[in-house]
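Take a minute with the sequence and C-alpha cells given here and flag any C-alpha cell that looks odd. Thanks in advance.
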Amino acid sequence: MLTDSHCHLASHRFEPAEIPGLLERARAAGVSRLVTLATGLENVQANLDLAENPAVHACVGIHPCDVHHAPNDAVARLSAFTGDPRVCAIGETGLDYYHPAPEGWDEQSFRDRQRDFLRRHFQLAAAARLNVVIHTRDQTGHASFEDALAIYQDFHPSVRAVFHCFIGPWENARRVLDLGGLVSFGGVATFKTAHQVRETAGQCPAGSFMVETDAPYLAPEPHRGKRNEPAFVRETAERLAELRGESLEALALHTDKTVRAFFRLRPDSI
C-alpha cells in the first residue's frame, strides 16, 4: 500500500471534475491513500470536502507564502477544524525564505511573521494532539531549515514534525530524526542531479521517512516538467526502493506504518 503523503488536490491546477480520474489513476498505480493539505483558510473546506472520500485525508494550515494576507487570528480559526475526523495533521506550515517579501513587507518582518505563524501552528497541534507538516525553502544555504528546527525543538516532546519535500544533507535529516521527527521525499529524489537527496534517502532508517508528490508540483522522472499527480508517487517510491536495495513491497510496507503512526489514522481507516 503506497501513500501520497503530501499533495494539494484543492489546487486551482486541478479541476473538481478531474478528481475522480486522479484518484482512479492513483489506485491503478498502487497508491491507495492520499493526504491533501490546505494552504490557507480559503481552501480548508475544499480539502475537507475531498476527504469525504475514505481514501483521502486532510490537513489544515497556512502556508508560509500566504501569511502576509492571512488574518492575524488565522491559526486560531483553524482550531474549529481540528476535531473533524477528516483532519489528520496540521499543515502545510513552515518557513519560506526562497521567495522575496511581498509588496509592503521587508524581508525581516515577513520572516518574523512566518516564524510567528509556525510557532502558533505547533501550539495548535499540541493542543489538538496532532502532528505538523513543515515546508522549508531557501535560495541558498539552510536558514529556513535551521529556524524551523529551532522552533520544533521547543515542541518536540509533544508534537512530531515531518519536513516535507526534503532535499537536504543526511546531517540535517539526522537532526530531525533525533527530535523524533520525520522527513518525506518527493519527485526531486528521481532527478539525475539530485545526488544529495538520494544519499540522504539511502541513509534514512525504515520508519523515518514517507513518500510524497507535492502534486501538482515537482513531478518525478519521467514526468518532469508536467503537472504532477498522486499516481506519480509510485515512480518516486520505485526509485527510492532501488537506491536503498529493497523491494517496492518492503518500502511500501514500512512507509505505510510510518504514515499511519504520524497521521494517527484509525486502525480501520484506509
In short: The chain has one domain: 2-262. The domain at 2-262 is CATH 3.20.20.140 (TIM Barrel). The two ends are 10 Å apart (CA to CA).
